[in-house]
Amino acid sequence: MSEKLLIQRAEAGDDDAFSDLLSPYKNYLLKVIYSFLKNMPESEDAYQEVSHKIHQGLPTYTGPNLKAWFTRIAMNHCIDQIRRRKIMEIDLDDTQNSIEPAGLWNEEVSSPEEIVISKETQNELAKIVDSLPAQYREVIQLHYFSELTYKEISLRLEINERTVETRIYRARKMVAKIWRKNATL
Questions:
Q1: The whole model's pTM is what?
Q2: Using a CB cutoff of 8 Å and minimum separation of 24, what contacts does 157-165 make?
């Protein structure tokens, strides 16, 4: 059965058609997800969430390349999950620093004011990155949040490594410009 027919049947509520549509890509999507999350149980859970997002988004699918669309949904989901994980780690680290009695006398521990300023700075930076056009936001998130190299990003996005370098350069310039503009307000 053709992908187009499977999509139509899946949109109409046929769960078997959706399963037939997604099953050829399951192992591929699990590999993509695992490459981000580096944890198989977490990757399997994320695959379930991604398949749900794919099912919900089928009515909006208009592109010619279903695999690329599935991959984009999986990557975006993983990036969001990694971002949430990093926020949780930062919050836990801050909590541990403020709870440990020895940390109260350690000069390396930031003052409450510095912690608040640092969190505000991180939040402002995250807002700026989120406001960037998708092609620039994506490479910034992959490079700085997922800590991928230019080569890994180019392979993942199926673009030239030089293009990745250019997009990161332009994104950084955009972030700096917005940052300076916000600082003068």
A1: 0.50
A2: 164/139
